[in-house]
């Protein structure tokens, strides 16, 4: 079937004129539908204009020009959202698809962190030991690394998070060794926050359950945390050597939470061990190696390092000292670094045995000194190529943190029962973070306040989130997500409270502070004096004067008093307007003496009623 010849457009005709005369067959070909293959680029939910231009291999000026044509004023360092990128990409002949987050959006992460497929190598697994208090977590680590951490702990309970790098024989080649990094987390309920963080940095969770104690509240919490973050669980049923051990009971309890061993037809790995005598520990380690091989854990050691702070304190002689788990890249002596608003340079670098080293690769726990101030637990370390870049990153973090202020008057509402309601819109980086935030906020309980979730979800803070906050009077709280440009414009114009956090506990603390501001104070009344009304001297439209005998304490001019009857019912309360003794004005009257008490018109009383002076204090409530 032949194509019909159509009239050429001006653009096509101009192109032909430049090309010169064409034969009929060529001209007929022009009438055929032209199929062009668009360049495809993959970007995250939000991206810097400069980064978009680099990925698209276009001049940044061309991208900015296209943004302006579409009504978006953004410089090369400002962010644009995915939808905006799709629109300008279409105009620029580029097909834009959604991909992984770039480092420019990760709150201070350097661009070189991005994994390079050419340089990837297998990294050691990071294993978190978790479980209920006294179920044997630290004892297990002691046995594995042949150390005795528990003896140095308060009451034998782990009070902090510590990380250890060990070498074990390769199950497939006994002549070789395989490294594993263990992170020991506290099990007591008081350390719930640290346990939550411990799970988030792990590749594998080893859940310790005592065979003589069974599934406990913290056991259940670990299972829920690990599942919400899609972290594989290996269950170690410990203390099997105890006379009261009941392994079958423990397995039955675990099955209620969908933890079913492979020998029972399930998919979970369950190992029976004794941390005391070493039974089953070799099998546990083999299961860890097998699971890590299935996960195919990789990292790029050839880029500047990123890591997580898992411990920090001030050290005499070394200053601010932090234990860091390197996630990707390699950390070197002398590297400029930032942790949130804190920057510095690596002056001391030690392994977990406090031996000086020159560099640390992926999955390696190290002690670092050289910070200008103490970095916070749970924050991210980023290494840079220059100190200038590190300072700029810390400065930008401070600028972001400076907007963490809430307008309480605009965000607090009341229900029919008079309880104060805080409307919140929550956006998080992943579902696991979202659930962790909601769980933490659910622990804020008070009869006079409520938290209402207007909206919740995963992804950047969008224009629709800002519009919803405007309509409902909600505050927007993000966790490790960006605020997209269209949303930012609405937020700034309408003065909406919107903050994105890097640490969950900072978010929770800010909510607590906001709610504490609007909680009514506790009114405390302290009795300072008591007396009995003996007579009425005057009662007219201007003044009331009664005579009373003070029986307890000291009555002072200006005191707030209440008048009560014989059944202790309050008839009236108000302030004393004047105080006399034998017709002379006085400032106070002690017990055992009579006084003339001036009250405002309308005060209710009868001879024989009691006069009680009270001191009123307003005590601020805390959560």
Approximate helicity band? 25-40%
Structural class: alpha+beta
According to CATH, the homologous superfamily of the largest domain is P-loop containing nucleotide triphosphate hydrolases
Which segments are poorly predicted (pLDDT under 50) over 5 or more consecutive residues? Answer: 1-8, 18-36, 100-114, 147-161, 187-197, 401-410
Query: What is the rounded Rg?
Result: 35 Å
Distance between the termini: 80 Å
Tell me the number of structural domains: 5
The profile of the biggest β sheet is: 9 strands, antiparallel
CATH-scheme architecture of the largest domain: 3-Layer(aba) Sandwich
Mean pLDDT value: 79
Tell how many strands the DSSP assignment holds.
34
| CATH topology value of the largest domain | Rossmann fold
The top level CATH class name of the largest domain: Alpha Beta
Tally the helices: what do you get?
A: 16
Strand content: 25-35%
Global geometry: extended
Q: Can you describe what's shown?
A:
The chain is α+β, with helices and mostly antiparallel strands and 623 residues long. The chain folds into five domains: 67 residues, no CATH class; 173 residues, P-loop containing nucleotide triphosphate hydrolases (Rossmann fold); 86 residues, Elongation Factor Tu (Ef-tu), domain 3, CATH 2.40.30.10; 111 residues, Translation initiation factor IF- 2, domain 3 (Rossmann fold, 3-Layer(aba) Sandwich), CATH 3.40.50; 98 residues, Elongation Factor Tu (Ef-tu), domain 3, CATH 2.40.30. Helices cover 26% and strands 33% of the residues. The protein has 16 helices and 34 strands. It is extended, with a radius of gyration of 35 Å. The N and C termini lie far apart (80 Å).
């Amino acid at each position: 079937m032949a194509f019909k010849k159509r009239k050429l457009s001006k653009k096509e005709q101009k192109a032909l004129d430049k090309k010169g005369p064409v034969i009929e067959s060529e001209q007929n070909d022009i009438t055929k539908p032209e199929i062009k293959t668009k360049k495809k680029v993959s970007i995250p939910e939000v991206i810097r204009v400069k980064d978009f231009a680099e990925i698209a291999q276009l001049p940044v000026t061309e991208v900015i020009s296209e943004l302006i044509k579409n009504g978006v004023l953004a410089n090369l360092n400002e962010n644009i959202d995915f939808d905006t990128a799709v629109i300008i990409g279409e105009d620029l002949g580029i097909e834009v698809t959604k991909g992984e987050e770039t480092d420019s959006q990760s709150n201070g992460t350097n661009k070189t962190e991005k994994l390079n497929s050419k340089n990837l190598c297998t990294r050691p697994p990071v294993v978190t030991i978790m479980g209920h208090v006294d179920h044997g977590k630290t004892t297990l680590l002691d046995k594995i690394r042949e150390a005795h951490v528990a003896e140095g702990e308060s009451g034998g309970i782990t009070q902090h998070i510590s990380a250890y790098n060990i070498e074990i024989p390769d199950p497939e080649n006994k002549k070789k060794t395989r490294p594993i990094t263990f992170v020991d987390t506290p099990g007591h309920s008081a350390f719930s926050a640290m346990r939550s963080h411990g799970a988030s940095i792990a590749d594998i969770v080893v859940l310790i359950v005592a065979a003589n104690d069974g599934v406990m509240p913290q056991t259940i919490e670990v299972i829920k945390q690990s599942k919400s973050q899609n972290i594989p669980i290996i269950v170690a049923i410990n203390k099997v050597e105890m006379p009261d051990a009941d392994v079958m009971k423990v397995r039955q309890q675990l099955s209620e939470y969908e933890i079913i061993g492979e020998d029972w037809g399930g998919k979970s790995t369950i190992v029976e061990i004794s941390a005391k005598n070493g039974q089953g520990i070799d099998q546990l380690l083999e299961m860890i190696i097998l699971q890590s091989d299935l996960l195919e854990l990789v990292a790029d050691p050839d880029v500047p390092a990123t890591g997580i702070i898992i411990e920090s304190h001030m050290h005499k002689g070394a200053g601010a000292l932090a234990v860091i788990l390197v996630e990707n890249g390699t950390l070197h002596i002398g590297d400029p670094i930032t942790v949130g608003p804190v920057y510095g340079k690596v002056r001391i670098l030690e392994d977990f045995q406090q031996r000086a080293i020159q560099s640390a690769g992926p999955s390696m726990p190290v002690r670092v000194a050289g910070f200008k101030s103490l970095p916070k637990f749970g924050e991210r370390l980023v290494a840079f190529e220059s100190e200038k870049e590190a300072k700029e990153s810390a400065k930008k973090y401070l600028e972001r943190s400076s907007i963490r202020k809430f307008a309480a008057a605009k965000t607090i509402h009341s229900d029919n029962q008079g309880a104060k309601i805080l409307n919140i819109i929550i956006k998080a980086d992943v579902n696991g973070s979202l659930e962790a935030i909601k769980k933490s906020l659910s622990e804020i309980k008070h009869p006079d306040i409520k938290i209402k979730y207007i909206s919740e979800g995963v992804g950047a803070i969008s224009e629709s989130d800002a519009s919803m906050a405007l309509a409902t009077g909600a505050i927007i709280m993000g966790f490790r997500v960006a605020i997209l440009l269209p949303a930012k414009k609405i937020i700034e114009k309408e003065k909406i409270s919107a903050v994105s956090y890097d640490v969950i506990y900072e978010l929770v603390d800010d909510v607590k502070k906001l709610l504490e501001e609007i909680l009514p104070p506790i009114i405390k009344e302290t009795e300072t004096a008591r007396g009995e009304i003996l007579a009425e001297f005057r009662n007219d439209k201007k003044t009331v004067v009664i005579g009373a005998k003070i029986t307890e304490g000291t009555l002072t001019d200006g005191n707030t008093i209440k008048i009560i009857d014989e059944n202790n019912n309050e008839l009236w309360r108000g302030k004393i307007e004047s105080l006399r003794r034998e017709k002379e004005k006085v400032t106070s009257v002690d017990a055992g003496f009579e006084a003339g008490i001036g009250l405002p018109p309308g005060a209710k009383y009868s001879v024989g009623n009691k006069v009680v002076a009270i001191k009123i204090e307003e005590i601020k409530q805390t959560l």
